[in-house]
Amino acid sequence: MSDFPALADLQAAFGPETLRLAADIPERNWVDCSLEPPCRPRALLLPRSTEEVSRALAICHAHGQTVVIQGGLTGLAGGAVPGPDEVALSLEKMRGVEEVDLKARSLTALAGTPLEEVQQAAEAAGLHCGIDLGARGSCSIGGNIATNAGGNRVIRYGMARANLLGLEAVMADGTVLRHLNKMQKNNTGYDWPQLVAGSEGTLAVITRVTLSLHAPVQQIGTVALSLPDFDAALATLGRLQTHFPGQIQCFEVMWKPFMTAARDIVGLTLPFDPVPEVMALVELDLPQDADAGDGIMTALEDLFAEEVITDAVLATSQAQADKLWQLRESAVEYRAHGYRMLGLDISLPLDRMREAVETLHADMDAALPDVPVIVFGHAADSNIHVCALLTGPEDPRGAEVSRVTYDIVARYAGSVSAEHGIGRHKRPYLHLSRSAEQISAMSLLRRAWDPAGILNPGRVLPDAV
After folding, report:
1. Which of 12, 46, 78, 131 could form a disulfide with 36 if both were Cys (CB 3.0 to 4.6 A apart)?
2. Sign of dihedral through CA atoms 401, 407, 408, 410?
């Protein structure tokens, strides 16, 4: 491997349990959950400590060896898929919750810790982790921070960055930055942990995180609402925010094609007949002694009278709530029915979302009449997902789905990424949401932190450093 000048130094520093080569690299490290084709990296590093991460990066930096950072490999933007000449550095061995501080309401964990373990540790201490994703069992907390992950409960707890107190990270040259702050107020110059959050591994490798925890959830009230259009959903959201300030956990919206596809392809029973134009699934955190049903229906009674809401299903048990959520989470079921799902994640201004989604459906029908396209998402935080059901990994219609979707984003002043990040997939479209001046400023930061451009090259920014 004469074309791999860093190899000798890496072999001198690490044994075979930490450094894997050729056939010893597991296929799971060849790809993430995006639709990028798998690719075996030239080497895989599996450090068990911050010191080992630092040593590995120092060696790679000295040789100009590019490195792709891997967490739970659940990303959908292709950012963790290695190139054939890259070294993959996986944080999967750096796992564990190290501290839960009840007085500070904080938690410190190694970057490779699955989100679900973080949630369980917080719950065991009588507290609550505000970050929650469908991939909670396999995504890593370091990856959540690196991509500034969103999820179902952003409307209440904010994006991953909003839950971050402190960080430990390793720069491209091996320098360790450690600021595991547990204070809500610490106004001491540049807040570099907030800069690293959401940088998708292009500035530094996150090795530890300190999160802010929240009061435990008391009683969840779950209700599905039948609505005539998205404007009705916004009116309902406003009414609930007035009656239950700070208590809305989730406000998920599904448009009619999403529901009909779940019924006709996945085989689910829908809660409403006929199928409404829009359905909202709402979760509220209510006091333990509150009558959830009476409280929710009382808050919404005027909207029922005005036919802003045309029907409702209130979950009276966890099983009923789970059945409602099964519909919302049905998007992951299409692979089992012979489809390859291309999922695009965008934001649209709330005051223009009704028009934008109606235009999106019309443009998709005109351009791709034989491709089922479903639209759903968190919506209350401006985030929707546009998913096309294609026939296989080589289906050429995926490019047209992207073109139509991002044309809508540009037309309605939206964002090409709400919560999934940029990675490889959205790099060509970044200019639709960021000006040339902003992209230039980001590139300047990138060069300052990683002058040789070894960390996650070809991701996020239009050109490698």
Report:
1. 78
2. positive
